[in-house]
């Protein structure tokens, strides 16, 4: 399942409660009434099909992870036909498995490096700098950045495989090391996927920050300019406070997406030798390749919990900030 | 002093622009140059011998054209389910006060971001397996729909919220039944929102890799996203002409859809960011 | 049309309508007037059937329609934003109610043409609402209401979406239209000038209750309580506290004749419109006196605010006779125009 690629304008409003619709000037807000006389039973009937699909194919598997994680279900062998209850064995194994911790560490590096820092900074930087750019330059760069995001994952994965090829890839060619240059994906797998993901995902942050920056009232910026602020000071004192909410939303979304991104698999398949085995790839390897469904289920749940934790942390941070 | 500062600033800006352009453009250039090259290589260079032969080879490949067909089938199937399901649900949620509505929406949205394919990969596989839908495109459509519906409902509800209720009330006072109101008034006015959701869904499904990868085992049922991967992971040295050409053709519909959506609706589902 | 004991309570305890009783004659142009939040729109929507009352009943003609769906009440409503369906042409919009009533297409088109002609929308039939001006949109909305031949028209702030000048033209237009059609019309407005100009009778509302029902004349000349007195009239009415003393009422340093029905020493509020309180330069009997505080030019007259022993009273002078600031002037109420209210509940005494 691909991550839902919602556009920044839609999702920047997402985690915070929707603001009340602009009320007509002299009218007090009226509670929502049933405008077409649909009636509650029919309304429930309308919502039912969608909820049923979501329930069965999204929620149920997530909940089932709980159950699978406490069995020794395997894809093949005796445990496949009759999985037995093993309690928290899988979890105990997971929590003492160095490979799992290694994978979590790699995921942390991946998320921090490419998303929390990489895409965020580059996205904001590009949005800031492009504001003053000439229209054609802006269009060109935005189109390129967007193209990197739009193209299907299998395609861009191969583009980078070609780019980083040891003997004939463009990077090595530019460095003058052909043939026999550095096999980037093998020698520096984490660096490669981090740079790749920055390239791939900056578009979302850039669009979001672009919208955020245009919501900063020009009068504030002009006041700072009249007071003699440098660019850095303006950024810090005027811009950042205004875009704080967007920054939190953005970071939350790209963190979650990157945490669960399967695309590194297409580049390195977790290798060489598990050196770039981020969490999603690790889960895949244990489940489908290794056939250990039960164990993999336990890991999935732990990963899910980490995600929820991250989401809560961010939401708390966002709300606390807005209250202050 | 200020002039020097300004000039240096200007130069820096141009350097930044140059670097950004190069960084983002270089990997992409391979995609547009190699399909037309008689001697395709990994590096980006002007085609030494310009040719269209790669395209005919692609056409004769046993799996490539049918994989595009599969992508289309998956996209169309998912769009129908998502648009109809999301429209009904979003309308009801927008107009009727169902208890716990706001909480439900946020939980759903959060779920669809957090429970991505990888976290639920194992149980999804098992569920489809139990339902006997392994290696079935219909199964893939169901799973994809389940994953895309929360966000679709969320976006569409916002859109429908912005439609003035007076249209529906007016029709109601004139005696129209709820179904008539939906047909005569709501759906036509909501058409841009519905179209945008449809385009968004198609783009998501077109590029989705993991779900069809896990759930479909026969090569002739796999969509293009999986097939591209198969082309370069299969043993032996990859056929670069085939891969590049296939990638290019496979990517074009997505780019076109984005262009279409952008020009028509400008990516705005509702009034933009409310701060 | 009549409303009996109508109550509407929203979840959370908000009483939008509080046991209202109202009866409207056939063919009457009736205004529901009041500040925002007073319940006038809720009342209109309850008559239309878009809100269901918590108690009480609504009758249209001979029928009790309280339990009927909006579509079955034979009313037509024009919303503040006109609610013209953006994807339909003007003709389709006007013919829409007839389409619901299942009239055959030819008849619908014919009727729509007729009504459009009646409202001066002749050549606009194939256009979409977005291509029309504000005034034209309003007339299309009216045409749509007229086309379905209802027994009652309901207008929700019909003029507030128009800009000021258009509003005056539209006002006259609507009044003529209603006279022609002779259909019972109820309209909601917060603009007292509009209500006075258009309506045959007005109900002034506040916080879910009707404070006064009467013709524009009644409501203007004899407001039944201080709320109505304050609300009606383009310049705020002077409301001054006073006290019954002996044979007169002591108020702001002067004495006014005492009407019947008051007890000795009872506190009262005196109401007099600035328009009925000319400002004079010479001393007179039975007048208020004070120093000029502010002079506001209103065109053919000027509003003079006078400090009368701590109370600020407004009076008028004709153009050209404005007094200087700080000058001592006398204000003499025109006979028969002074209103006496009981201070404790604001009701009119005389």
Description:
- The complex is a heterotrimer of chains A (324), B (275) and C (350).
- Chain A is mainly alpha-helical and 324 residues long.
- Chain A has helices spanning 8-11, 40-69, 78-81, 89-95, 98-131, 135-150, 153-163, 170-174, 184-187, 189-214, 218-226, 231-259, 264-268, 279-289, 293-323.
- Chain A has one domain (94-323): MetI-like (MetI-like fold, Orthogonal Bundle).
- Helices cover 70% and strands 0% of the residues of chain A.
- In chain A, helix 4 (89-95) crosses helix 15 and helix 6 packs across helix 10 (189-214).
- Chain B is an all-alpha fold and 275 residues long.
- Chain B folds into 2 domains: 2-51, no CATH class; 64-265, MetI-like (MetI-like fold, Orthogonal Bundle), CATH 1.10.3720.10.
- Chain B has helices at residues 2-33, 53-60, 64-95, 101-114, 121-130, 137-161, 165-173, 178-207, 210-215, 224-233, 240-265.
- The relative contact order of chain B is 0.13.
- In chain C, 24% of the residues lie in helices and 33% in strands.
- Chain C is built from 8 helices and 20 strands.
- In chain C, the strands form 4 sheets. A 6-stranded mixed β-sheet of chain C has the order 6-7-8-3-9-10, sandwiched between helices. Chain C has a 5-stranded antiparallel β-sheet with strand order 13-12-11-14-20.
- In chain C, helix 5 links the parallel strand 7 and strand 8.
- The mean pLDDT of chain C is 90.
- The chains are: A mainly alpha (324), B mainly alpha (275), C alpha+beta (350).
- Chains in contact: A-B, A-C, B-C.
- At the A-B interface, helix 1, helix 2, helix 5, helix 6 and helix 7 of A face helix 1, helix 3, helix 4, helix 5 and helix 6 of B.
Could you outline the blueprint of secondary structure elements for this entry?
The complex is a heterotrimer of chains A (324), B (275) and C (350).
Chain A: H1 8-11, H2 40-69, H3 78-81, H4 89-95, H5 98-131, H6 135-150, H7 153-163, H8 170-174, H9 184-187, H10 189-214, H11 218-226, H12 231-259, H13 264-268, H14 279-289, H15 293-323
Helix pairs in contact in A: 2-15, 4-15, 5-10, 5-12, 6-10, 10-12, 12-15, 14-15
Chain B: H1 2-33, H2 53-60, H3 64-95, H4 101-114, H5 121-130, H6 137-161, H7 165-173, H8 178-207, H9 210-215, H10 224-233, H11 240-265
Helix pairs in contact in B: 2-11, 3-6, 3-8, 4-6, 6-8, 7-8, 8-11, 10-11
Chain C: E1 2-10, E2 14-23, E3 29-33, H1 40-48, E4 55-60, E5 63-64, E6 75-78, H2 90-100, H3 105-118, H4 134-147, E7 152-156, H5 164-181, E8 184-189, H6 192-198, E9 201-206, E10 209-214, H7 216-221, H8 226-231, E11 238-245, E12 248-251, E13 254-257, E14 267-272, E15 279-280, E16 288-297, E17 301-308, E18 311-318, E19 328-331, E20 339-342
Parallel strand pairs in C: 3-8, 3-9, 6-7, 7-8
Antiparallel strand pairs in C: 1-2, 1-4, 4-5, 9-10, 11-12, 11-14, 12-13, 14-20, 15-19, 16-17, 16-19, 17-18
Helix pairs in contact in C: 2-3, 2-4, 3-4
